[in-house]
Amino acid sequence: MTSVKEYKCPSCGAGLDFDPPSQKWKCHYCFNEYEKDQFDISDNEEILNEEMPELDSYICNSCGAELIADNTTSATFCIYCKSPAVIKSRFSGRFKPKSVIPFRLTKEQAKEIYQKWIKKRIFAPKEFKLKEEVDKVTGIYAPFWLFDCKADGFISGEATRVNSWSRVITDTLKQNITVS
User: Fold this and answer.
1) CA–CA separation, 129 vs 125, rounded Å?
2) What pTM does this model have?
3) How far is it, in rounded angstroms, from Cα 180 to Cα 175?
4) Residue 159 — φ and ψ, nearest 5°?
């Protein structure tokens, strides 16, 4: 199978998407835009010499479409019919799992939790609140050791000191003032 070229954002390293109306490459993570000719293979010797990973192709059992995956993908979904696809050959030998741990939440529950959470983040970029971004929510398995650590940190910043006060006279204080 021939190699497939994936364009990466020079700023953050995320994958770039080509936007036909603007004829530019756009990064959906750092929101930078690049001209089409910046990634022209004939103009960029570095891209020609770059080692590209080989991808494998599989056939979707539901619709017959071709699925493309790298050598680390074990489970994916068909981009056409959205059917889940498990690459059985990846679950063999010494890496064969003893069992599969199911997710605790459905995708709809996860999206609802994310929407409630992001709604409270007033300084979050507006793009994080778009339906297209919310629909990208997916489940991942995270090893338990990712959540067991000690960390030290330092926070530095600038601030302006503001003093404020208010004058409140309670009924008891009013009585003492009038008696005196």
Assistant:
1) 8
2) 0.36
3) 9
4) -150, 165
